[in-house]
């Protein structure tokens, strides 16, 4: 196992890694990462406020989903992430363990008649079990996860100040094959769409960018680019020409994916409240954020304006813990857990029309929600030690 150490005195390097800059300038295969996502997304895919006035919503709202599978950790379940193709979900826990689950197996298990399930042999049960890997290499809570976009590698971050890479192509491998010893606990990570680089947000305000192969660390050369408090979320846009970060300092920052410089800051994005999450729309025209004010917002990147506010999730008061606002797979809806009622709020993403609540069935607060990028499914993680997989079945499933 390879180990790398990063001290608190992270060297300021202004330029991005040479191979990324050269690749973007000279390699035709890298051009897709330098162009705007709006040039590559098919019409009618995802939200576009310029052309969506008469869009008929065909995807199911949150209240139509049902629980298909439940997996348990030995401690509070704190984080989850989907693979890019939506086939796998990884969950992480305060017990320091990570599970990787197969979505098709979860659906098959939930549809299996009880008598068939009871008569399965041990071999059949192992072959059909939704949990395909359990990984142990952290010594404290797993706080963030990200699948490599093209290889069978899972990155994880923890309260133990380490970033680890797991090769889950090997059934027997339960330990990381590489790790970085960071100077602070990790909060959020995001792979570059090429898989060659990894954004890392920690308890420290300085954003890190790592070369996945060498683990060399890069940061902006201008200290004024950085946040002033804990980084809560990091996210690349699909074309990799920019990325977004959000922080406990109440701001959202938009960064240039090539120069590694902050180009826009949305100060007091949630009226001064901590910003818990920030993600791009499929066409990269918008950012969806959520804050501890229990509000989700849709931002237009070109103007820096808030286009839509999704309110009503915290009628009994501001939330205490971080959670995430997410799009569904078609971006027709915005979803945000309500901490006090342990239910899921759902809004029409274009009009902010409030839809029916979905009771999430957990016995404690929900700390994470992730929606599939490809189909009507999502995972919720709770302090009741459980992760629940939700899906909207159709007649063809």
From TrEMBL:
Keywords: mRNA processing, Nucleus, Repeat, WD repeat. InterPro entries: CstF1-like (IPR044633), WD40/YVTN_repeat-like_dom_sf (IPR015943), WD40_repeat_CS (IPR019775), WD40_repeat_dom_sf (IPR036322), WD40_rpt (IPR001680). It comes from the Eukaryota. One of its GO terms (cellular component) is mRNA cleavage stimulating factor complex. SUPFAM superfamilies: WD40 repeat-like (SSF50978). Gene3D superfamilies: YVTN repeat-like/Quinoprotein amine dehydrogenase. It is found in: Nucleus. The keyword Repeat applies. WD repeats lie at residues 70-104, 135-176, 224-265, 275-309. GO terms for biological process: mRNA 3'-end processing. This is Cleavage stimulation factor 50 kDa subunit. The lineage of its organism: Eukaryota, Metazoa, Chordata, Craniata, Vertebrata.
